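Protein fold
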Amino acid sequence: MLNKTFLSVAAALCVAGTPALAQPTFGNPSPNAGSSTSQQANAAADAAAYKEVDYVNKGRRGPALVVIPGEVKSNNASFTQKFGPNNIADFGELELSQANFPVLERSNLGNLLQEVSLAYNLGDAQAARKTMQMGKLKTTQWVVKFDILKAEQIAENKKGFDGRAIGGLMGMLGGSTGSYAAGHVVGSVQTQEATGVWLIGMRYKIMDANTTEQVAQGYKELKMEVGAQATSVMGVSQGAKGGVGLDTMVQRLVQTAVWDIDSKYK
């Protein structure tokens, strides 16, 4: 009995002495850390930060698949210079893995990737069957790709106030020292605000790995808003700009598409 008590106490001490596993944290070396500008900028960054999606069927294992590079069909130069099909496929592999789909990464295909992509983009069933008999590809059931069909700025709105004209008028009409002082203050006020909204659309396609036939497809579209504002009074200025970037928008579109795939077709 004494031995059992001793062992129980010893086990409890071992557990108590084990350091708790925690997510790593990092300091902020910025000289503005904790200031109002830092807090506002960090709040905006937190709103745009990556967030994992709780895929509804992630407890169920999906079909084995390969993500092939899709197409970027937008004519927007800002988008096409920044993104290529491989960037989007990387996001696709990440999110499909999170949703519990066995994903054969493109890096493991080597030179076969071009043959696989060509076979499925052309719908060449014979070539597809030939490539799918090679190595790790034998277990593949689906071939998935994500295409960007739209990336365009659809709206822009600007407004501002320049107090110089009103300030000068107050100084001339008032005639007193106070009027001149008030006119000087009003004349120093300048505000600017601008907002732009983009629409970015993504199509996903699921193809049967053996026949190249389309199993399913869907289209998702999200808005991206970017904005900036600035105020200056008596030489004291304040400004802010921000919004969700193109990287984040593409990732969110992939997450939305994968949520569709996980909930409807698994």
Summary: Residues 47 and 244 are 9 Å apart (CA to CA). The first strand starts at residue 65 and ends at 67.
